[in-house]
Amino acid sequence: MADEQAIGQAARLIERAERIAVLTGAGVSKESGVPTFRDALDGLWARYDPQQLATPEAFRANPKLVWDWYEYRRSLVRQAQPNPGHVALAQLQARKPGTVVITQNVDDLHERAGSREVLHLHGNIAGNRCFADCRGNPTPIDISALDWADDSLPACPDCGAWVRPDIVWFGEALPQPVLDRAFDLAQACDLMIVVGTSGLVTPAALLPDIATSAGARLIEVNPDTTRYSAHADVKLSGGSGELLPRVLAGWGAP
Ligand code: OAD
Predict the structure, then answer these.
(1) Is 231 a catalytic residue?
(2) Residue 47: its pLDDT value, please?
(3) Does the Cβ of 240 fall within 6 Å of ligand 1?
(4) Which of 176, 194, 209, 241 is at a distance of 20 to 30 A from 186, taking alpha carbons?
């Protein structure tokens, strides 16, 4: 449980900051019912093997299995609602225009909470593209007009390759323009707030290091200890859905 003093310190850092970058991970959506990846009990990678579900090789070997797994995750995201942590970050953006949310999440809960500028480092689970990227990388495909059999998956209307979810799999490069902008923001911000990420997947995990090396202050919101915890200026130990609204409420308090 984060104490009032730490909440107050975080609020003061936010008040004074001029350029805030927020990096979020799966933990920010956990209180919305979207599972994280690495939580020991209910994380997705505790129950499923990423090598069989989240790589281009896995899709090539068994496209229907991978497609169905993403359909399951899409249904979880569709049923989920933004939680108070997403809402607090949207309010932060409204009160400090120029604050950018950089997320590793493939859900759209930041946007549905009202966040305007959101950079998706790992893609968007609702989107689809051609597995062969036959018209350039990426080749987006609207599947709403396509027909496919129940025991199959949609195929690209141009080249016939399977349609895949528009997310970044293990072993794939992140979308370069998004990554470039995220690195620029990390370099230029004077405060980075890291919320709900284990910090185990690069290059996203490097962003807080880039920010602090360039002189930015660091706030971390996470119930666990991560590689960022020891050098954070303020560590808020707990769920972001509970703690971020408290920080926002403390902003402006005497
Ligand atoms: P992880 O599952 O690795 O880490 C989730 C973090 O959220 C952990 O540090 C938890 O302690 C923390 N957490 C749990 N509940 C929380 C809560 N209520 N509030 C705040 N934090 C909480 O997820 P990511 O770091 O996002 O990649 O994983 C990074 C990438 O690995 C993902 O984007 C995904 C995955 O493989 C791709 O899909 C490409």
Answers:
(1) no
(2) 86
(3) yes
(4) 241
Q: Report which DSSP code applies to 162.
A: B
Q: What is the pLDDT confidence band of residue 40, given thresholds at 50, 70 and 90?
A: confident
Closest CA to 172 of 182, 184, 162, 164: 164
Give the predicted TM-score (pTM) of the model.
0.96
Residue 122: name the closest of 103, 140, 99 by CA.
Answer: 103
Question: Is pLDDT above 90 for 42?
Answer: no
pLDDT in tens, 75-121: 999 999 999 999 999 999 999 999 999 999 999 999 999 999 999 99
The Cα–Cα gap between 7 and 235 comes to 9
In this structure, the number of other CB atoms found within 10 A of the CB of residue 64 comes to 12
Q: What is the pLDDT of residue 250?
A: 86
Ligand 1 pocket: which of 41, 49, 55, 197 to mutate (most atoms within 8 A of CB): 197
Please give the C-alpha separations between residue 15 and each of 106, 161, 233, 235, 254, in angstroms, as whole numbers.
Answer: 29, 51, 15, 17, 12
Which tens digit of pLDDT belongs to each residue from 3-25? 899 999 999 999 999 999 999 99
By most ligand atoms within 8 Å of CB, the mutation choice from 102, 193, 222, 228 for ligand 1 is 222
Dist. CA 216 → ligand 1 center (Å): 23
For the chain, the residue count is: 254
Sheet of 217-221: strand order equals: 118-120, 100-103, 20-24, 191-195, 217-221, 234-236
